[in-house]
User: What shape does this take?
Amino acid sequence: MSLKDEVAMIVESKPCIRIALAEGLINYSALAKYIKEEVEAELGKKVSEGSVMLAIREIHLKQGKGSDVIKALKTSYYTIESNLIDYVVDWSLESVKKLFEKIAKEDVLLSIIVGKMYASIITHQNIDDYLDEIGIKPIKKIENLANFRVVIKKEYISSVGIIEEIIRKLVLHNISIVETASSFTEIGFIIREEDVIKAVNAYKSLV
Assistant: This one.
């Protein structure tokens, strides 16, 4: 493994350092001194502090304007859906099938995020009566939510790190992500309505 690859692995394995480097909050020289011994131990040979610093600089520049992640985000846009409710239920294909059959005749829009044991039903309106009628008892009901959705161009869907970069910014802005709901070019984050303005500011800091 090359020195640059080893430095990159060390930086990626330390979230605090990776975030500080991406935000330009850490000095190349100071970081080189900090990880030099670890780099040498992994490579099994002595390396100069200067070479480690150059590798760090390259990694930082790669995180910057020229990366596919940045290009994807700069050509993206966002949408917001508000007044959402998240019903967390035990996952059962039969129960969800009954729910779809029940609301098919009604003007009810919903999305279902399925896990191994549980499912989240995201909807714009209260469906307590529908759930009660078919025997589904929600484990949890979370109201006053919004879907902050980032839409990227098709040519960037295979780019590595887009979702991570968005989440990193949301976390830095102290935003709790309740659920994620993505499809093809759309990356959706279910957040609390009170955090929507912070989410917009987080997005703007990316682009």
Remarks:
- The chain has nine helices and six strands.
